[in-house]
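Before surveying the methods themselves, it helps to consider a single example record, giving the amino acid sequence and backbone structure tokens:
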Amino acid sequence: MGKELTYALITPYSLLKSRTGGIISRLLSMSDLELVGARMYTPSDEFVDEYCKSIEAQSINPIWEKALIEYVNDKLRKNNKLGISNRTMLLLLEGEDAVNVLHNNVIGPISEHLKSADTIRGTYGDCIKFDAGKIEYFEPAVLTSTDPTVNIKQLDLFAKYALSDGGVLENVIDFGRDKKPETSLVILKPFEKQDPRPGNIIDVISRLGFSMVGIKLIKMSTKQAEEFYRPVKEMFYEKFDEKFRPNLVDKLKLALNERDFPFVLNDNVMQKLVDQLKEPFITGEFNNILRYMTGSDASISGDTEGAKKEKKTICFAILYQGINTICKIRELLGVTDPKKAGRSSIRRFYGLDILRNAVHASDSIKNAERERKIIGLWKDGESCDVKEIIESYIKESNLALKC
């Protein structure tokens, strides 16, 4: 089988019950498929109607076909039987024989809900079925395609409704008349293929009870990273004497201690050396951040040679909405240095050092807005990455069929 693009749609109930992190962890780690896109949706009635028709085109047991259609009709509409927000999360995955691998090996067939916990539906889905064949309770946890032909049709729907039904969902949750919710940007820093940690971190953050209202996979360009981390560079200059000078003096003493100089390396000389090294030191530290967040040495070399060393560096950008969101999330993350972070903090468990400290979170409403605009998680334009990924795949698929 060739490379395919397919999807997993996390249901509103799974999002409500904070099962999202566990589901994402399994989607990332249980196969060789690559995550290539993510977007939040609140399906319109038009989308639901067309999606139900696509289910009818699938070759599945009539009992499960009926159960799926009833579920989508009852639970994915804005006015649904559960009386909850119909937020869903779309994740696009790509790889060899992706439709079959995702449906059968990772998410699991519907009929296998209660037989094993080695699939997503086996753990997070529920199906209570009586002997007479009647289904009493049904929650699939995740929706996906069962065959390549219907997969194309359903992907086309997600592209068609990407702008009208998807994007940033800051106005879909009712917090009450007197409540003033905040939206915080959280970035799960670069992760590798089949790495379950992004899902694990999402699971920890879910304990705060905040709602996910936006998600995007980002591959920062050098220009974006420079603008995003500009305040950090400014802080380096402002706090140089306090945070960096003493350590740099110690390093110089260690490096020059055994050298034979015709003069005394007294404190005055050392401080002058540090003054000379201030600019290259800050530039070097800042470039380390750019290299880590972009996966490219172009940010350092400033030429095309750096671009040759570029690798895929993917981050999760997530918007959380709730009351006092910014402060509470930053408290849960812990201080910048994982070694100094509290024992129950995310950075203490998932961070490696100050640079690779697992997660970024906005420190104010103002900065959250600034950062969201830089990475394209503010307001949608005439297109979006998920729409473009799907349309490109469908176009290539159609060309392949013609050849």
User: Anything to note?
Assistant: The mean pLDDT is 89. The two ends are 17 Å apart (CA to CA). The longest helix spans residues 267-294.
